[in-house]
Amino acid sequence: MWPGAPAAAIITSPIIPARTGIAPKCQGPAARDWRAEHGIVAPQGVWNLRGIQRRINEADSDIEPLVIEMSRLYLAQIEALSARVSSLEAVLKKEAAQSDASSQMMTMPCLGPITAMAIEAFAPALTVFQKSRDFAAWLGLVPRQYSSGRKQALGRTSKMGQRDIRRLLITGAMSVNRWASRKGAAPGSWLHAMLLRKPRMVVAIALANKMARILCAMETRKEVYRDPQLATV
Fold first, then answer.
1. Which residues, 6 or more positions from 67, have their beta carbon under 8 angstroms from its beta carbon?
2. Can you list the pairs that 222-229 forms with residues at least 24 positions away whose Cβ atoms lie under 8 Å?
3. Nearest residue to 139 (alpha-carbon basis) of 173, 175, 96
4. Which of 58, 117, 135, 201 pairs as cysteine with 216 (C-beta 3.0–4.6 A)?
C-alpha cells in the first residue's frame, strides 16, 4: 500500500466537511435562538454537542416535538460521522508510528500524525529543496514580492503550493497561538514579540512558515526536533 494512503484518505475524505456542514444546523444562530427560548444553552463546537444531546434528552414536554426530533436527527448524523473520523484517525496514527519520517516529524510540538503523513504523502522528498525557505515557498507560505529598483514591497502569501499541507501547518500554528494567548508565551521569545505587535492570523502564518523551514532542516540533517518549545526557536 502507498505509505501516504491513510493521510490522503482522511484529508480528501468528504466525511469531515459533511460533519462540519451539519454542525451549524445544531449550533448555528437560529438553532441557538430557539433552544435558548426553551432554556437549552450549550457552548459552540463539535465536541460540545454531547451537552446539547443531554439537554435534549432531558427536555420536558414544553418543547415542541418537532424541535426535539430534528435536533436528535442532526445529532445522530454527527455522531455517526464522528465515529468514522475516529476510525480513520486510528489507522493514521498506526501508520504514522510505523514510518520513520513521520515519527521524526512528530517530535515537533503541535505537529501530529495527520500533518506528518500529509507531508510524506503529498510533498516531494524534502532533501530536493536547496534551502528551507524553498520548501516554505513551495507551500505558498511566503509573501508575494512587488519590488522595483531599491524599493522592496511584500504582499500577502502566495498560496501557490500544496494547500492541504499549508492548511494543516497553519492549523497547528493557530493552536500554538491559542495556547500562548491563554497561558502566555515565554517572555522574550519570538512568539511573544510577534503576538504583541501582529494580528493572530499573521502570526499563525509566520509560525507555519517557521515550522516548514524547521521540518525541512530536520529532514535534511536527519535530526529530531531538539527544542521542546516551538515558540523559542
1. 34, 35, 38
2. 222/104, 223/104, 224/104, 224/107, 225/107, 225/108, 225/109, 228/109, 229/109, 229/186, 229/189
3. 173
4. 135
**Residue 230 near residue 176 (C-beta atoms within 8 A):** yes
In the 8-state DSSP scheme, what is residue 155? E
Give whole-number Cα distances, 183 to 43, 48, 57, 102, in Å: 21, 22, 36, 29
Q: What is the model's pLDDT at position 99?
A: 84
Is residue 10 within 8 Å of residue 92, measured between CB atoms? yes
In this predicted model, what pLDDT tens digit does every residue of 167-205 receive, in sequence order? 889 888 998 888 888 887 778 888 888 888 888 888 888
Q: Which of 151, 207, 156 is nearest to 179 (CA)?
A: 207
Q: What is the pLDDT of residue 213?
A: 92
The Cα 29–Cα 43 span in angstroms is: 12
Tell me how far apart the terminal alpha carbons of the chain are, to the nearest angstrom: 36
Within the chain, which residues score under 50 in pLDDT?
1-2, 228, 230-233
Give yes or no for a contact between 166 and 159, defined as CB atoms under 8 angstroms apart. yes
pTM of the model: 0.69
> Rounded to whole angstroms, how far apart are CA atoms 60 and 172?
42
Residues 6+ apart with CB under 8 A from 50: none
Domain ranges of the chain: 5-95, 100-232
Largest CA distance in the chain: 74
